[in-house]
Write a structure and sequence with these properties.
It is a single chain. The two termini are 24 Å apart. This protein is mostly helical. The chain has helices at residues 5-16, 52-61, 74-81, 87-123, 128-152, 158-163, 199-207, 212-217, 220-239, 254-271, 276-279, 288-306, 318-348, 353-358, 360-378, 382-408, 423-445, 452-473, and strands at residues 281-282, 286-287. The protein has a domain at 90-184 and 198-344 and 371-416. It contains 18 helices and 2 strands. Strand 1 and strand 2 form a beta hairpin.
Length: 481
């Protein structure tokens, strides 16, 4: 059963009165610890049953508690960096950090990912449907495929990959409607005559995310949110190029694009596997990120001396692909942090792996897709976003599950055995099948003109599926023996 924060504190208080030398294996299934070896066979959620003085050691020695795919070790921070009396403070700070990660996702998708995707589709002359099921589906589905492959590497976590395939499909509305390609400033501030700017002026305007006239017009709550957005916007403006076909110069900013030649590959390296590849030292002498930096500097100088301000080169469209890849990897890295943070909440409140896979992990894995698709739809590309909803799922199921299973098979292991979930497996498969059949029937009946009722029906279908799956997990719904 899930634990509330109050119940957790009551457990902490009661356990702290027990003897300090209480055995580590109390209430745990098969735990073996030898010196500094990793604890094997233990579930990380069992940390709540331990004495307060033993929880930090358990978190650090249990393999199931290792956050090796993220930048921050949230479990270690919650149980080792904060004393038991300040444990609610750790939960509160993690909740604030989770909210900020959502803001980072929204900013990246709206101002960097979607504009470059639009530029790519125009450069290749792709229809919105084709762009949705190809580039957008790949960009959205790549993190889920990597997660599924990693999950299938262990039969205990393979169920998480299956459960996380059932993504949250929802819709939200806001009062403000952004201008095309995520521009905050619109056309009203665009000068009638082009102005000649120096190189440094172009660079400063390129990395400045605040418009002074709009700042004076906005209300205080918008300004507060904007202050929190400024650091991440400046970082992304320095690292992610943006190509806008609607502008005469396609948003060519010569000094800033020269910097992108250096910073974009470095950011991509640090986004891959939590920066492990970037920190790898070649023959114990030179790290990979330094090598990429040394290669990027001369290329940047060549670009600087062979181009002019206001005249984009013929190969400027390449920057849209670079920006798309960089923003997609950044979204993947942020989504990974969200998944790790949600998993930390699952451990704290003692949610089972199945419930975690159906709820928090599924929502965390889908938040990047949700923000990207929603932003595209609100910017005037609903067909591309709708195509990506189905193209992403197909990509995840066929490539993610297929590749994950294939990598675990070999000559000595012709099949992959998952944990038996009994009735829940049929509910998962049935929920996916019913939703696809419903869309297969409802969309042609409406002559492919989707209305609000279709979205409401999908939401109700998801809520019904989630309720039935959770009731089955908690034993309320079960088969007669």
């Amino acid at each position: 059963m899930p634990l509330t924060t109050l119940q957790w504190l009551m457990t902490t208080t009661s356990l702290s009165q027990e003897a300090i030398n209480f055995p580590l294996h109390w209430g745990l299934p098969i735990i073996v610890s030898h010196g500094n070896d990793t604890t094997e066979g233990a579930d990380c959620q069992e940390v709540g049953k331990l004495n307060v003085s033993l929880r930090c050691k358990f978190i650090r020695e249990t393999s199931d508690c290792n956050d090796t795919d993220g930048y921050i070790r949230y479990l270690d921070g919650a149980f080792c960096s904060f004393p038991p009396q300040l444990f609610p403070l750790a939960i509160f700070l993690y909740a604030l950090w989770l909210l900020y990660l959502f803001i980072i996702l929204a900013v990246t998708a709206e101002k960097f990912f979607c504009p470059n995707l639009s530029a790519i589709s125009r450069t290749l002359r792709l229809s919105h449907n084709v762009a949705g099921v190809t580039f957008l589906a790949f960009g959205n589905g790549a993190p889920d495929v990597f997660s599924a492959v990693a999950a299938f590497s262990d039969s205990r976590t393979a169920g998480l990959a299956i459960g996380a395939l059932f993504e949250l499909l929802t819709d939200t509305e806001e009062n403000s409607i952004p201008t095309p390609h995520g521009s905050e400033y619109g056309d009203e501030y665009r000068p009638l005559l082009p102005l000649q700017h120096t190189t440094w002026q172009i660079f400063w305007e390129g990395i400045n995310p605040v418009d002074s006239r709009k700042w004076r017009q906005k209300r205080w709550h918008w300004k507060i949110v904007k202050v929190f957005k400024i650091p991440i916007e400046v970082l992304l403006l320095l690292c992610v190029p943006i190509v806008d076909p609607d502008k005469e110069d396609c948003n060519w900013q010569r000094p800033l694009n020269c910097v992108h030649v250096i910073t974009s590959p470095v950011l991509c390296l640090f986004c891959l596997h939590s920066g492990t590849y970037a920190r790898y030292v070649i023959q114990g002498v030179l790290p990979v990120w330094a090598l990429v930096l040394l290669i990027g500097i001369p290329l940047s100088l060549i670009l600087l001396f062979t181009t002019k301000n206001g005249e984009p080169p013929k190969y400027h469209c390449i920057f849209s692909f670079v920006g798309f890849i960089t923003s997609a990897l950044w979204i993947s890295a942020v989504a990974t942090e969200i998944v790790n943070l949600l998993r930390t909440f699952g451990v704290i409140f003692r949610l089972s792996n199945t419930v975690l896979g159906l709820t928090l992990l599924a929502w965390g894995n889908s938040i990047g897709d949700f923000v990207s698709n929603l932003t595209l739809a609100r910017q005037g590309y609903p067909r591309m976003a709708f195509s990506a909803c189905f193209g992403g799922i197909i990509f995840n199921v066929l490539i993610g599950v297929g590749l994950g299973c294939l990598l675990q098979m070999g000559p000595s292991k012709p099949e992959l055995q998952l944990e038996a979930q009994d009735l829940l497996v049929w509910i998962l498969a049935g929920g996916l099948g019913i939703s696809l059949i419903f869309s297969l029937i409802a969309v042609p009946i409406q002559c492919f003109h989707l209305r609000r009722g279709y979205g409401i029906a999908l939401l109700l279908l998801y809520v019904l599926f989630l309720v039935v799956a959770l009731l089955t997990e908690f034993g309320v719904i079960k088969l007669k023996s």
